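Give me the 3D structure for TBC25 protein.
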Amino acid sequence: VAAAEPLPERRSLLAAALPFTQALLAQVGRTLARAQAALAWPEGSPPSPPPPPPPCAPLSDADLRTYLGPGGRLLRPHDLRLHVYHGGVEPGLRKVVWRYLLNVFPAGLSGQERLAHLRRKAGEYAALKVLLAARAAPAELALVGAAVRKDVVRTDRGHPYFGGPEEGHPHLAALQALLTTFALGHPRLSYCQGMSDVAAPLLAVLDDEAQAFLCFC
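Predicted structure for TBC25 protein (217 residues):
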């Protein structure tokens, strides 16, 4: 069956629209050509990404000292972070460097001031832990404690720091207390599954409940 011819009115509308459509397509083509020329892209292929920076060795104690100034003040925090990003940290130095990376210290503290800051924060954490546990309703405390313990008893148990019997395990107890204190202090967030996977390596490396809490927060 032959297709019906467009009505005269339809033909006139199509004829009137054709120049406009052709002009629009031509303008789009010119714009695209200018954009490709400005960006220097070969047609159909994106630009090559810049080469990655060369890898560097893990941060050593000697490297760390190059980022410190008089009195042990950290003078180049951005450069320190870049070094760690590209090379990591020697395992024995992580306890020191992670506290810089996780903003435990206010900027500009000397070595002695950092030690005093850690002592003060340890006292504040101990007081906060007692206060939050005393202020929480028994039902809330039981609910949060049960949720935290469900993860704690199965987090990194293959690691020597968390291995061994559960009963009376000091490191499991510290992880439980750290996460419970965080959850009670942040009731809108509380405890979420997987937080133990973040807190556990902090506790294992720092070997200090209060400092791990500071890094976790």
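The CA atoms of residues 73 and 110 lie 5 Å apart. Let me know if you want a second pass.
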